[in-house]
């Protein structure tokens, strides 16, 4: 078992009757994820892929044992959907929806903190513990069960690096997509603390990008020696111009803050190997695990 999700995870899909919700519900079911219910207001009493649909989360949890939610609800209603899950007592909520207004995200994260809930996202590809549970939209065939944890701000790079690791025999314990919006529920430090306590995880790959200070905070945390497992980093956006958003809403450089250079320097100062290209990740990982 990895972190956050596993064989014991029982999921309600909010927005299950929509195009994306229905499509990814099928793929998650095919992977073996235990999806016990779906929620779409006004669609209660129907089914999607043999999963019963309810009008509210409260109805769903009265009839099923639910401990996680994944949200495919359109942007204007996504925050309300997340709050509904949190208020119903669900403690793991993955929000796939992107570009939720910042004020709404703050409301969700504040409420989640009060209730002790873990928010993955917004704008996340989700989380996967290979061989046990996929709560998200990632292509599951690129992942294999193993001992390398991944925490990433980029969905596409997560897949690319997972392909490389799997190809060369480095299976993964859990892969977490932090999300690409300016404010998200989990930071690199949060996930590092979880991996630190996870006996299955022997090494960690951090996939960062320009914007914010999440990578610098992770480097500072690792430098304090509170995290003893081997860490390799990759930072996207080395050539990004200042003031221009690149891809994710959170990937923007303002002056000297949030540059790839500052992040790479912080990682190196903390003794973390930084890959110049995707293929270098597994090489740095191999050396560290052998040395460790």
Summarize the structure in words.
With 292 residues, this protein is of the alpha/beta class. It folds into 2 domains: 10-120, NAD(P)-binding Rossmann-like Domain (Rossmann fold, 3-Layer(aba) Sandwich), CATH 3.40.50; 138-291, Succinyl-CoA synthetase domains (Rossmann fold). The protein is 36% helix and 23% strand. The strands form 2 sheets. It has a 7-stranded mixed β-sheet with strand order 3-4-2-1-5-6-7, sandwiched between helices. β1 (10-14), α1 and β2 (34-39) form a beta-alpha-beta unit. α3 runs parallel beside α4 (102-115).
Question: What secondary-structure arrangement, pairings included, does this model have?
Answer:
Blueprint: E1 10-14, H1 19-31, E2 34-39, E3 47-48, E4 51-54, H2 57-63, E5 68-71, H3 75-87, E6 92-95, H4 102-115, E7 118-120, E8 126-129, E9 133-136, E10 145-152, H5 155-167, E11 172-177, H6 188-197, E12 203-209, H7 214-223, E13 230-236, H8 260-269, E14 273-275, H9 278-291
Parallel strand pairs: 1-2, 1-5, 2-4, 5-6, 6-7, 10-11, 10-12, 12-13, 13-14
Antiparallel strand pairs: 3-4, 8-9, 8-11
Helix pairs in contact: 3-4, 5-9, 7-8
